[in-house]
Specification:
single chain, alpha/beta, two-stranded parallel ribbon
């Protein structure tokens, strides 16, 4: 793999930058992947025993990236189960704990992840410095994440004071915004900033998020890759791929 280039962002070119949260600003993608493995493996192991078939565990790399990463919780569950040919009742948030429903798996996952996000989440390299430099240069900063825990994670990592606009999973549910790869979440963030997509740059690590950014019409879509899916990010619309935000320089000239 060729050495990845550094990226220069200038106020002359961009009026706003939109960041995904997990895996871009914070290292929480690894936490989500680990918790999803616990939730799905519990379910898959129980189902395999009931049906008398071999247990095939959730892969926290391949399965997470292909089916869950960047998507709203319920969409990710449906996508992963569908990849295994499994269909569960939708259920409701009030389901008894012993029922196998989409809503129950989502509730179990959220319970497990909330504590870990508040105690284990840290900012990714270059995140705070890049956000601060952008705001100093007059580039507006938005965070757009399907996570309902977005506000808590930003506060826990100390990044909350560097954000002009936040659109998260709570907003998405309230406004009935479709999940990635639909661009609705990003377009809502840009609308709140008062900036058109043609004057904005997006930073995303999820395949679905990169595809959403391309559909939204961002001037530049930057893929963030931790070393496992650069080709997929480019194939789905990333203009450039970087390892983390430490590779970004901000040109203060206007």
């Amino acid at each position: 793999m060729q050495e990845r280039p550094r990226l220069v962002v200038s106020r002359r070119e961009f009026e706003a930058a939109v960041f995904d949260l997990d895996g871009v600003l914070t290292d929480t993608a690894r936490i989500h992947a680990a918790v999803w493995k616990t939730v799905f493996d519990d379910f898959l192991r129980r189902r395999a025993a009931q049906e008398g078939v071999p247990f095939r565990p959730f892969d926290p790399a391949a399965d997470y990236l292909a089916h869950v990463d960047g998507k709203p919780r319920l969409d990710g569950i449906r996508a992963f189960l569908g990849s295994r040919g499994i269909s569960l009742p939708e259920g409701s948030p009030d389901d008894a704990d012993d029922l196998d429903t989409v809503q129950n798996l989502a509730r179990h996952k959220n319970r497990l992840v909330q504590g870990r996000l508040r105690t284990d989440a840290t900012a990714e390299p270059g995140a705070a410095e890049t956000m601060a430099a952008m705001r100093a240069a007059g580039i507006k900063v938005a965070v757009a994440s399907s996570s309902a825990n977005c506000a808590a994670v930003l506060e826990a990592t100390g990044l909350d004071g560097l954000v002009d606009v936040r659109v998260d999973g709570i907003d998405a549910a309230r406004l009935r915004l479709a999940g990635k790869p639909d661009p609705a979440l990003f377009l809502e963030a840009l609308d709140r900033l008062g900036v058109s997509p043609e004057k904005a740059v997006l930073f995303e690590d999820a395949i679905a998020g990169v595809a959403a950014g391309r559909r939204a019409g961002f001037c530049r879509v930057v893929g963030v890759d931790r070393g496992d899916h650069e080709e997929a990010l480019r194939a789905h619309g990333a203009d450039v791929v970087i390892a983390n935000l430490a590779a970004v320089s901000v040109d203060p000239a206007t």
